Known about the structure:
By secondary structure, the chain is an alpha+beta fold. It has one domain (9-193): Metal Binding Protein, Guanine Nucleotide Exchange Factor, Chain A, CATH 2.170.150.70. It contains four helices and twelve strands. It has a seven-stranded mixed sheet. A three-stranded antiparallel sheet has the order 1-2-5, with no helix packed on it. A two-stranded antiparallel ribbon has the order 11-12. Helix 3 (149-166) packs across helix 4. The longest helix is centred in the C-terminal third of the chain and has 18 residues, at 149-166. One zinc ion is lined by residues 32, 34, 36-37, 46, 120, 203. The site of one zinc ion (ZN) has 9 residues, from loops.
Amino acid sequence: MNPVAPFPLEGGCTCRAVRYRLLTKPLFVHCCHCTWCQRETGASFALNAMIESDRVLLLHGELNVVNTPSNSGLGQKIVRCAKCQVAVWSHYAGGGDAVSFVRVGTLDHPNHLPPDIHIFTSTKQPWVILGTATPSVPEYYARDDYWPPESLERRSALLAARDGHRSPAYRGADGSCRTGAAEGREDRRRSSLRRTCVPPQRCR
Ligand SMILES: [Zn+2]
Ligand SMILES: [Zn+2]
């Protein structure tokens, strides 16, 4: 991450109906070379700044949320300008709506957010030549090995707040009440499923 980036940063869609502000630096910036990102962008990789959604301020404009399949099978929500349909950020199943993957190319000055890591380089285009200054991994990675301590702390706070909101009772799809702890177990089960069952060419 560029330590001198002047936050907040602003960005928006092409027709300028949607404008947003990133209030702080993101948690981490992924440059993803997976085949899903290649198809969804029509380009050779996607550059996503992962940040708590309450740090992304919508200044104006109407958003259109498009449910899109993902390789995990859990789907992603791509958030687009309702007018010009340019995608400004996404939510994945893992972090849900609480985490936004802001498309760095929609920032007014995307140069402020270079990638912190290149992921899924096993499927990168051969003409994309990566230097050694930024870590790169063939598929995904262990968060604790790469994220700065401050970002790990922010993530812990986010999870605690989310689980706190669900406690003491979370109403299941069948109408039954479940505790926040039960929901936490379900989340862990889902994430272990993702770790073990998902084929490699996925974004996350
Ligand atoms: Zn627009
Ligand atoms: Zn990807």
